[in-house]
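Record PepSY domain-containing protein, 179 aa.
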Amino acid sequence: MRGYRIWTFIVLCVMIAAPGLMVYHQVPAPVPRAGVSLTTGLGQIRAAYPHAQVLTVVPDVYHHAVAYRYRLRMPNGRLWHVYLDARTDRILATQPLPGIAPRPSPTSRPTQQSVRQKALAIAYQAVGGGQIVTVKTNTEDHGRIYIIELMLTNGQYAKVRVNPNTAQVLSIQVEKVDH
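=>
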């Protein structure tokens, strides 16, 4: 009977103490204070990346070290995260943000009309002018090419094959008109 009372007492003590031990276990460890302020870190980032635009800064943890995470926009439009150690003011890592590619501006990609105008200008210069008869496009090993037929001032026809992407005249064929 005595053993039963001892085990009952032990079980009762464990039931009373267990919630307190579980709460004590959940108390987070103290976080060391940052030795570097946000503004000092910002100066360090701007010195390391002078042409980048700083978008945001947030306190973070990087590999168990207290850090500041800066989001930067580079001159090419890409976004990067830069981690700065909050105690030593040292850059820990730079990581590009995946899947976020810069959007091309509307003026960066030539329109179909401007490419056509460029091809026509190259053809005019190659044969010394004339009047346009036909303009065709074709895809070859060189990429998209323009085949431009011109009637020259002397009555001859010229067929000029032009690659406007490389500003290259691929061939010129001059034909005489039979009268």
